[in-house]
Each structure stands twice: as C-alpha cells, then as structure tokens.
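re the bet — no i am not wrong, look at it urself. input seq straight from the record:
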Amino acid sequence: MKILWVKADFLHPTTRGGQIRTLEMLRRVSGRHEVHYAGFSKPGVTEELERAPEYCARAWPVEHDVPPHRSVKFAVQLAAGLWSPLPVAVSRYRSAAMRRRIDELARTETFDARVCDFLAPAVNIRDRRGWILFQHNIETTIWRRHAEVAPDPARRCYLGLQARRMFEFERQVCRTVRHVIAVSPAEARNMEEMFGLGEVSSVATGVDIDYFAPPPAPAPVADLVFLGSMDWLPNIDAVSYFAREILPLIRARRPDCRFAIAGKEPAPSIRALAASDPLIAVTGTVPDVRPYLWGSAASVAPLRIGGGTRLKIYESMAARVPVVSTTIGAEGLEIHPPEDIRIADDPARFAAECLALLDNEAERRRQAESAWRLVSSRFSWDRIARDFEAILERHAHASAQPGCGNSAEMTRRAQPD
C-alpha cells in the first residue's frame, strides 16, 4: 500500500506516548509499505527530519508555530477560546499551509490509505471522507474529566465549555471519516456509543520487551516512580494529587519514602514539589527513562483524567516493575488485578497498595513476573503493527460509502470548518 500519514508533529525527539506508539508501528509498517508522512516541523530542530527515514519513504514538513503551555501566545489562545467554535486543543493546530500541503498531495499523488493520526490534524483536512482516523484518546472524555476535577468554578466553567466544543468537533470528524481506529476495545465501544458510530476498530498498545529488560543489578533511584510527560495536564494533575493526598499517607508508615517524577518539561507546580521536599526528585527531560524504572520498587499511575491506553504501565511491566494505578490510569488495558497490577481509586487504598509492595519484596517479584508474562506474550510491536495494517487494508478500498452518518450529513460535514 501507499499510505499518506498526517500528524501534528514529527516523531523525533520522541518524548510522548503518542509519538512512541506511532513510531514503533510505522517503523514496521514502512518496511512493507510506502509511507508518506506530513507533519509540523519546528525551526531549528534538525533531528525530526534527519531521522524521518526510520519510519517513512517521504517526509512533508510544514512549519507552524504551536505555542508552548505557559507562554504568552498560549494565554492569548486560551482567551480566544471563549469565542471560537473550535476547542483550543484543536484550533491551535489549524494551519492554512498544512491544508494546502494536504490538498496538493491529494491532487498529485495516489494513496491507497490516508491516516489522520490523533484528532487535531483533522482540522486541516478539507474533505475527510476516505480518511481513517487513528484515535489515541477520546478527547471529549479527557476534557470532561478536566472539568470534573477543576479546583474552582471559573476553571470548571471554561473547561466545561471546551469539553462541549470538543464533543461537537470530535463527533463531526468521527462521523465523516471512512473509519475510526481506537487503542482499546473499551474505547472503541465508548466512541460507538458517544458519537453514534458504526463499528470502530481497535489496536492494542505495544511495548518493546527487549528494550525494557532490566540489567542484573540496577542502581537504586527511588521507592516509587511516576513516568510521563510533565507538560501534559492529566499527568500534572496525577502527580499533584499523589503528592498532596497519597504520599503523606505512605510517609506516615515509611517517612523516608522517596518519589521520582521522570518526564519532560515539568510544570512549575511540579518543580515546586522537589523544591519543598528533598525526598521528591523531578528529573525533567532525560535521555533514557529506563534507569528510573529499573531503580524503583514500584511504579504509580494515579491518573484522574485521561484517555487512551497508558504506555507507562506496559513499559513498567516490561521493566519488571510492579504497578499501582487508578481505574482511569489503567483504563482500556488488558489487565487482571491484583494478579498483574494493583488498582485503587481513593487515597487511603492507593497508599495501602503501595505500602503492600514496598513492605514485601517477594510480592513485588511475584506481581512483576505475572505482568511481564502478560506483556511479553501479547503486546509486541510487531503484532500490533500487523493488526493495524490489516485494518488499513480492509478499509483502504472499501466499496461502501465512507463515514458512519447519512450521506447528506456526511457531504455537508466534509466541508472546511
């Protein structure tokens, strides 16, 4: 197949779960198919294009300024979000140059399959009929959960507004594309019900078992570790919640409990945790996260917001590190608690599960071994990539009308936003 793949960014430097998932799959898919990759490039970053041949035959970069969080430009975007019909998480990726690039490729090249990777790039696709949407998360769910846990009425109101606008946009896109692929059967069912869709396919999250295999005697780092990008709001909320409500309960029994937060671009509130507590380490961007997993007794995923499947959990399992998670943190994963993971949704129970592992090395080893058997037998990237290819091939030349709504509605909704 000849595949056009559109995403909001390139895949190097690789710092996010969505990048890891796409990179690992495309490395394998591109060995069997011709992949053309279009994404936003960053001025002055050479690695993203130098390493693009690892996963595509042709790269089509488009320069576009996506302001970082905590910047003045992002604050302006947030203010504009009060009036824009598009959610801010989508409108900040709108690009006339990318629209022209996609139009040109559609006019000059013939593709067997066209993939929109994540929801936001769909804002730059004029006619979405015939496209396959690869949904790593249900974005509406994420924003609804943001609103639910917002600390004050003003933020609850703003985030609720964003959630409503995200629902309208996400439903529109899902109902106009040819097919939707989710990252778990649970999320596929949720999208079918939430947006009134026909069948939504799903592919699991994979993990590189060999890459995460621990060395014989890893250097100790911490008792508990959290792994994830620390500029992503669900991760910021999870770590703040853990430090505020769970860690003190653990410290009541183990006052010397050390907590490591390993992830790029930590927000000021996360850096402040380390500044006020010498037993909390905030790493920022690190060249390799594996030593932080190998050197910790347990991995925690106390998420209260989020969607998709969490690479951090399967990576911890592959590193033979036992995991404690909330239900939302492990949502969509094939797990068998308490055999291969511990699940707890209130602070006291979460703390108790962490202490049960910290106090018992034999139990840590037992749970870690059970989890490793699960991921090693079922979730290799080779298998996941083959599953994804099969879905593409099945829908690339579908004879049925694209999309899941009625034809008149699809034609209307396929027009530019």
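see?? The radius of gyration is 21 Å. told u. also The first helix runs from residue 17 to 29. so pay up
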